[in-house]
């Protein structure tokens, strides 16, 4: 019984130390993501200012502008520059929102790190190892060694299950947010068609802009949810046991491409259907990722039960 108590205490300490390591990794990850969005804000702001200068030149009087107007090129050039400006503004707004949300996430991680005394945990674990060595001298060393190996596998497997569950929960939230974004895109598409082909007047235009603003907000909510899902998946990437390994490289790829150009697609109402298709594809990717996580969860749960049965059999001998 004393050995089991020692193992339980070791499992608790290992779990706390794993949490500390995980939080430190999250801290570095989020800091890098914040730095990235800040770079995006700077880059897009420079590009937007350059386009504004070009628009001022295009709209100003010149004989070249007159010639372009006669040939129809002026409208095309204006439309192209305005469209690029709209896309850049949307990307800047999104990056600023991401910066704000990620800063909140980082503050929460820092608060949790401040509440953990890692040095104290390491000292407690060292003391526990001394107690276990003393136990080995007094009892069956071979049996104790088997129990130690099983206990280490059990600790890792339990931690893996916890982190898979957290990833599944983050994936469910991402799916919900993607569904809301898809519905909002559908609404924005309807208003753009109404405004373009039926006219609608001032009220229709106001409703259209409200729908587009709502879409921008819903797309951001989906993006931050996907980012958090991505981060949860990275937590389990390196975790493995003797017979169970979770590969997540394929799991995280969907988060790397989708939102890079989503605003380019939906900012022009003729392309909103393209944005809806992109959202649909990512919904499928998230569904598949969650399904694969559930498979790993079931496998890990079965492996844990087998470990516990083997450990119980040794303790009964």
Labels describing this entry:
single chain; 317 residues; mainly alpha; Helix Hairpins; Four Helix Bundle (Hemerythrin (Met), subunit A); 2 domains; 10 helices; 0% strand; elongated
If you had to describe this structure to a student in words, what would you say it looks like?
- With 317 residues, the protein is mostly helical.
- It has two domains: 1-139, Helix Hairpins; 140-317, Up-down Bundle (Four Helix Bundle (Hemerythrin (Met), subunit A)), CATH 1.20.120.
- Helices cover 89% and strands 0% of the residues.
- The chain has ten helices and no strands.
- The chain has helices at 2-59, 63-71, 73-114, 118-138, 141-198, 201-235, 249-252, 254-257, 262-266, 272-316.
- The model is unreliable at 192-207 (pLDDT under 50).
């Amino acid at each position: 019984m004393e050995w089991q108590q020692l193992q339980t205490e070791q499992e608790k300490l290992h779990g706390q130390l794993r949490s500390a390591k995980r939080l430190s990794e999250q801290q570095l990850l989020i800091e890098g993501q914040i730095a990235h969005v800040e770079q995006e804000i700077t880059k897009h702001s420079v590009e937007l200012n350059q386009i504004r200068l070009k628009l001022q030149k295009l709209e100003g009087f010149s004989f070249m502008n007159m010639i372009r107007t006669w040939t129809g090129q002026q409208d095309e050039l204006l439309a192209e520059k305005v469209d690029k400006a709209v896309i850049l503004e949307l990307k800047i707004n999104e990056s600023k929102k991401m910066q704000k949300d990620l800063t909140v996430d980082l503050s929460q991680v820092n608060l949790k790190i401040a509440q953990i005394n890692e040095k104290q945990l390491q000292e407690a674990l060292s003391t526990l190892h001394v107690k276990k060595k003393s136990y080995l001298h007094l009892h069956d060393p071979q049996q104790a060694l088997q129990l130690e190996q099983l206990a280490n596998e059990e600790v890792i497997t339990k931690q893996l299950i916890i982190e898979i569950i957290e990833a599944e929960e983050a994936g469910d939230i991402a799916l919900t947010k993607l569904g809301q974004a898809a519905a909002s895109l559908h609404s924005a598409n309807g208003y753009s068609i109404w405004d373009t082909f039926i006219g609608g007047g001032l009220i229709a235009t106001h409703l259209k802009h409200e729908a587009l603003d709502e879409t921008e907000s819903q797309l951001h909510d989906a993006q931050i949810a996907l980012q958090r899902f991505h981060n949860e998946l990275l937590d389990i990437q390196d975790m493995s046991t003797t017979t169970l390994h979770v590969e997540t490289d394929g799991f995280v790829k969907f988060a790397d491409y989708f939102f890079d150009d989503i605003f380019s697609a939906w900012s022009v109402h003729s392309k909103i259907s393209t944005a809806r298709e992109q959202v649909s594809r990512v919904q499928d990717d998230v569904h598949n990722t969650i399904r694969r996580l559930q498979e790993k969860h079931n496998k890990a749960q079965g492996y844990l039960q087998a470990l516990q049965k083997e450990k119980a059999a040794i303790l009964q001998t």
